Amino acid sequence: MWKLALRNVFRHRLRTTMTLMVIVIGTVGLNLSGGFVHDIFRQLAELLIHSQSGHLQIARQGYFERGTRSPEKYLIDDPRPLREAVAGAPGVRAVMGRLYLTGLLNNGRSDLPVIGEGVEPEGERTLGTSLVITAGRALEAGDQYGIMLGQGLAQALKLAPGDWATLVLNTPEGALNSMEFQVVGVFQTFSKDYDARAIRIPLAAAQELSTTTGVNTLVVLLDQTGNTARVAASLREKPELAGAEISTWLELNEFYTQTVEMYDAQFGVLRLIILVMVLLSVANSVNMSIYERVGEFGTMMALGNRSGRVFALILAENLIIGVLGAVIGTSLGIVLAMAISQVGIPMPPPPNSDLPYTARITLTPAVVASAFAIGLLATVGAALLPALRIRRIPVVEALRQSI
């Protein structure tokens, strides 16, 4: 039967070519659209990780829920034992401390409320590969009283590298403390709202200003983003971290999960539309091909072939066409994805951001397998109804079609 089905596929070249074109176009479309959406997810994840959150953050219990309102109540007084335990875990590339700050930044004429962090310059340089420096430079180990400003904040206070500003905040004891800092750089992240009120100063200066020796969080940079869940699970089992709370970058970036849900829903609708288009187009081609061959099928049944064998033959033919179309479409989709990724697709800044980016087509095994399966199943599914109708046609009526 398979030999006969293969001969029939190549005997009806025009119909086969029309059906193959539909399957190939649908499969290529699914591969490219799926790879485009996956690339958006990947780039957004790496941007958030390498500009703000890191892969993991470790803090005292309750900090991630309530700590931003009262960071002084959730200090890790001696972070060294935790740092050593985390740094020795497989897959961990770097560990750095951060101290959360809220206060007022004054330029000598006006002031604005700010949020910020005391950071370790060398560690943040390794982590912050997606942090865009729009003016000046990043913090360095020798910047004892250097400060970096978000782009929106620098514009609002009219501050540039080399200028001085005064940071005022409340100490844990409730007293006011102030310190002068020199602007060394202006940075830009994915979030325009964050840049409008964010500062970064050296951790030692933040601890001096807050009259503490502790940190709020330990930020962990991993070798690979895909290892986040595994490393987090292994760290939770360490006795040194028994009283600590470990949050992954997914848990820290609610915006990312909401974006993924939105694009997943949109891509699901797109996939459904392509599936319906392929199904209808293939069904039309298959219907025309099958009903032109009713007399042929009648002759087969008159010669002793059961209707079930005719039904299986029709499905076998379309299965062969579906496999060919899906293989060609998948191969062509991979080639096009590689070619487009080499050139890149210039994209405007997303909502709440000023940073444009270059999109690419990042194919994953799941995207390729899904496109292949849809192309194949749509072809076989389109043949079911006409094949069932042929199976029910009486032999005499089928033979009459050949007269």
Keywords for this structure?
15 helices, 2 domains, 12 strands, alpha+beta, two-stranded antiparallel ribbon, 403 residues, elongated
Tell me the β content. Answer: 15-25%
Give helix and strand order, one letter per element, not per position. HHEHHEEHEEHEEHEHEHEHHHHEEHH
Number of strands: 12
Q: Any idea what the shape is?
A: elongated
Helix and strand composition category = alpha+beta
- The quaternary state of the protein chains shown equals single chain
The number of helical runs is 15
User: What spatial order of strands do you see in the largest sheet?
Assistant: 2-3-8-5-7-6
Distance between the termini: 26 Å
Percent of residues in helices comes to 40-55%
Write down the Rg. Answer: 31 Å
Task: Let me know the largest β-sheet.
Answer: 6 strands, mixed, barrel
Tally of structural domains:
2
Which segments are poorly predicted (pLDDT under 50) over 5 or more consecutive residues? Answer: none
Question: How would you explain this protein's 3D organization?
Answer:
The two termini are 26 Å apart. By secondary structure, the protein is an alpha+beta fold. The protein has two domains: 2-47 and 256-400, no CATH class; 62-242, no CATH class. Strand 6 (164-170) and strand 7 form a beta hairpin. It is 55% helix and 20% strand. The model has no long low-confidence stretch (mean pLDDT 87). The strands form two sheets. A six-stranded mixed β-barrel has the order 2-3-8-5-7-6, surrounded by four helices. The protein is built from 15 helices and twelve strands.
